[in-house]
Design goal:
9 strands; Glycosyltransf_2; alpha/beta; 17% strand; 315 residues; glycosyltransferase; globular; Spore Coat Polysaccharide Biosynthesis Protein SpsA, Chain A; Glycosyl transferase; transferase; glycosyltransferase activity; nine-stranded mixed sheet
Length: 315
């Protein structure tokens, strides 16, 4: 590996993605940073997804794992949990073609990367104070036909553990991990019960003391369609959905799943993370413990709603 051109392993998990996959693969091929290998883990697609990947692999460096992570337990999971399991099992594979100096980038199957996506993220990480780091950026939201809908919001407050406890701000499609961060995620293995792989990676690395960098650079088009596992959280409808999830117990369920998985790595966590896990491990989460943890969402109204939900024993 040269200093100027670090190797990047791109991990994409697919399921019946044939409709938009060619455009995403073409955008990966068009990256200005050329030193990459694509690993695709397919979760039993019944369309032309695997054939599209194989054809792409005739020209570019691609490794395809077909139905590699399927079993009875996985098939019974909710779609978001199934996708999370696929990503985490793939990242934990001992045969992943990673060198000690490889960076890791995550990819969805239906987006469109801008040509400088990898180069920009790698440049940010190269200049980071801490080489144990995680990068995330912004996206432009498009509909299934490519029409522009909106843009993601830059962060109001910083990223880090207190935010990761109750919110994910690292969308998987923008995430890039340094070699040290990649090693820690792989060593942690496959978490049980989590719902979102990108939120888990953000929480795990934050709790281990990694530097988390989220800048305002727009690096891709994030496609919104009926098959999204988790769509973009914009607009009044999305805000109302989040509020319902906070007060109907869904949010508390996700947080507890994350904390239960995180608790298995006590020996690797920072003192602050161990204290937060201990304070928030009760079910439901106590409002006083949530307040003392100083956990926050980017929207202060949503932070207040979390505290109210905890008071109502909904977390």
């Amino acid at each position: 590996m040269s200093v100027c051109s670090p190797s990047v392993l791109i991990v994409m998990c697919t399921y019946n993605g044939a409709r938009w996959l060619p455009e995403q693969l073409a955008s990966i091929a068009g990256q200005t940073h050329k030193n990459w290998t694509l690993v695709v883990s397919d979760d039993g697609s019944t369309d032309n997804t695997c054939n599209i990947v194989r054809t792409f692999g005739e020209t570019y460096p691609v490794i395809l794992y077909e139905a590699a992570n399927q079993n009875g337990e996985t098939r019974s999971l909710a779609p978001s949990q199934r996708a999370a399991r696929n990503y985490m099992q793939t990242l934990s594979r001992p045969d992943l073609p990673l060198s000690p100096n490889s960076y890791l980038a995550l990819s969805d199957q239906d987006d469109v990367w801008y040509p400088d996506k990898l180069a920009h993220g790698l440049g940010v990480l190269a200049s980071a104070e801490n080489q144990f780091a995680l990068y995330g950026g912004q996206s432009r939201h498009i509909d299934q036909d490519g029409r522009v809908l909106a843009h993601s919001h830059p962060l109001r407050r910083g990223a880090g553990l207190r935010n990761a406890l109750v919110q994910n701000v690292i969308s998987g499609h923008s995430a890039i991990l340094t070699p040290q961060a990649t090693t820690q995620v792989r060593d942690a293995g496959v978490p049980v019960g989590i719902w979102y792989h990108d939120w888990w990676i953000y929480l795990l690395l934050s709790a281990m003391g990694a530097q988390v960098i989220v800048d305002d650079h727009v690096g891709l088009d994030y496609r919104q369609h009926a098959g999204n596992v988790m769509g973009a959280g914009r607009g009044h409808a999305a805000r109302l959905r989040r509020l319902r999830q906070i007060f109907n117990g869904a949010f508390g369920h996700w947080i507890h799943a994350n904390l239960t998985a995180l608790n298995r790595h006590q020996h690797s966590l920072t003192p602050q993370a161990r204290t937060s896990c201990a304070a928030l491990k009760t079910s439901p989460i106590r409002a006083q413990a949530l307040w003392r943890s100083k956990a926050y969402r980017q929207n202060p109204i949503e932070t207040m709603c979390l505290l109210l939900a905890a008071t109502m024993r909904k977390l």
